[in-house]
């Protein structure tokens, strides 16, 4: 090892090589010392194994104590489980009237067995439970072998026991172990209700969850392109959160059969499919769909989700406005319960500026009770803002990443009667022309990366409802105008936040 290190010093200066040669003997001694230490540890392990085997021929109590100890090599380098261990021990030792089953789940190699070992061998657990058994249950198991495994953990197994049948063995997991324990062991995974394994990322879709029909909440991440049809079996599912590194997700699962599903969230555009059976009833539970492709916004999808409250659409948004005897956007009109709508123009790998929206639909085409609206990468002209200003219940408007472009935005009288929050991110806007009357309900203004904006109109200082102004990477003149508005409202509680502070 030392010579190999010296040999790799080809690129070093000659002086370093000289001193490396002088220290050669000391390096040899240091390596030899480390090897000797390792050898002694190995000898200890071998001696421990011999002692353990010898004690196994003694009484059950002595053998139980030894079996509870693990070889040192299994307990080395167990780091990062302290918080999880403490949580599991709290659950195990907490006072409860009913039998509980605690599951540790996840893909192979995450350290489930290591964590279970750490809990099993903790002194608190040993003190709390007079009887402990470590057994393995595979997907295919026989009850007689399972009972024998449990008995080996809690008592001395005799030859007679080995020849007993299931019923006799069951009468024997009652002397030391409540019968209910055995009944739950094979099925406890199937009773799982929550499957939350983010931020762990799977290399594939975790197909094992397809059998867990009692699940009500599922959240996972990975590299997959479809949510398979078998997921339709999860008839109890209420929330499905799936995040992938793929560009899109094809939802092959028939969500129309998942009658309890309330929230479906994906981080990439998901393709939903129309009802297979046209006579199927509306989906009365579904409240959240984020994020779906524009092609998913058909009458067969949105027309059957009357109680949808939150909708996110991501993809080539121009598809929504294409006239083919009516546009896909027209289907949003039926969503009378919708309060949140997000529209993200994603045309990767092409730049969104080459597929900008030419116009917005008339305001009566928008969902009638819309309160929160977000645009991103749509590159609309500021004149189109008048359409949004006419939305009667709009309270929050977020314009992100070149949602609107152009030098000037001049507001029109009567626009935005209910607007409380306005956010503008990354735009080439220079002149904002507005009066206090244009924003009668405005409470919060956020301007981020609006580097060309000349100023915030001083008349906005007269908006009596205004509470906060936040500027992030704007022009110095815009920051100065915000400070003047703050001075105008010295008696109010207006909060001003400018970053960086030296703007």
Automatic annotation (TrEMBL):
Which residues lie in coiled coils?
28-58
Instruction: Outline the extent of the NB-ARC domain.
Output: 88-171
Q: Which UniProt keywords apply?
A: Coiled coil, Repeat
Does the keyword section mention Transferase?
no
For this protein, the parts annotated as crossing the membrane are none
One function term, GO molecular function aspect: ADP binding
- In Swiss-Prot or TrEMBL terms, this protein is called NB-ARC domain-containing protein
One Pfam family of this chain: LRR_14
Is Coiled coil a UniProt keyword of this protein?
yes
Domain (Disease resistance R13L4/SHOC-2-like LRR) ranges: 188-481
The organism named in the record is: Rhododendron simsii (Sims's rhododendron)
């Amino acid at each position: 090892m030392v010579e190999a290190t010296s040999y790799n010093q080809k690129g070093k200066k000659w002086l370093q090589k000289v001193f490396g040669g002088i220290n050669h003997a000391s390096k040899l001694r240091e390596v030899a010392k480390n090897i000797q230490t390792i050898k002694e540890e190995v000898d200890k392990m071998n001696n421990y194994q011999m002692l353990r085997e010898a004690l196994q021929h003694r009484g059950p109590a002595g053998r139980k104590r030894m079996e509870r100890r693990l070889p040192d090599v299994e307990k080395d380098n167990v780091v990062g489980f302290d918080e999880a261990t403490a949580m599991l021990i709290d659950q195990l030792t907490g006072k409860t009237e009913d039998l509980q089953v605690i599951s540790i789940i996840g893909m192979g190699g995450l350290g489930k067995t290591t964590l279970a070992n750490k809990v099993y061998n903790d002194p608190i657990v040993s003190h709390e439970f007079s009887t402990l058994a470590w057994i393995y249950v595979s997907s295919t198991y026989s009850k007689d072998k399972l009972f024998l495994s449990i008995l080996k953990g809690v008592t001395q197994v005799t030859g007679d026991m080995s020849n007993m049948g299931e019923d006799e063995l069951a009468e024997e997991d009652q002397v030391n172990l409540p019968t209910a324990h055995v009944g739950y062991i094979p099925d406890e995974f199937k009773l799982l209700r929550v499957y939350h394994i983010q931020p762990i990322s799977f290399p594939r879709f975790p197909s094992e969850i397809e059998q867990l029909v009692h699940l009500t909440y599922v959240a996972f991440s990975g590299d997959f392109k479809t949510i398979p049809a078998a997921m339709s079996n999860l008839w109890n599912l209420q929330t499905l959160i799936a995040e992938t590194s793929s560009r899109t997700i094809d939802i092959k699962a028939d969500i129309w059969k998942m009658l309890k599903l309330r929230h479906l969230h994906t981080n990439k555009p998901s393709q939903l499919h129309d009802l297979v059976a046209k006579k199927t009833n509306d989906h009365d539970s579904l409240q959240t769909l984020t994020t779906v492709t524009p092609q998913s916004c058909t009458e067969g999808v949105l027309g059957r989700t009357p109680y949808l409250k939150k909708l996110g659409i991501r993809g080539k948004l121009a598809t929504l406005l294409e006239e083919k005897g009516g546009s896909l956007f027209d289907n949003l009109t039926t969503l009378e319960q919708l309060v949140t709508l997000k529209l993200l123009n994603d045309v990767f790998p092409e730049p969104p500026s080459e597929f900008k929206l030419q116009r917005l639909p008339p305001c009566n085409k928008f969902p009638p009770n819309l309160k929160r609206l977000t645009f991103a990468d749509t590159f609309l002209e500021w004149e189109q803002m008048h359409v949004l200003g006419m939305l009667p219940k709009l309270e929050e408007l977020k314009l992100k990443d070149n949602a609107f472009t152009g030098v000037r935005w001049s507001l029109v009288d009567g626009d935005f009667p209910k607007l409380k929050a306005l956010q503008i991110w990354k735009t080439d806007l220079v002149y904002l022309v507005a009066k206090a009357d244009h924003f009668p309900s405005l409470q919060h203004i956020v301007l981020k990366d609006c580097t060309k904006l000349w100023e915030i109109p001083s008349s906005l200082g007269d908006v009596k409802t205004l509470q906060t102004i936040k500027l992030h990477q704007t022009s110095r003149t815009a920051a100065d105008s915000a400070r003047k508005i703050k001075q105008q409202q010295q008696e109010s509680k207006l909060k001003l936040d400018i970053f960086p502070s030296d703007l």
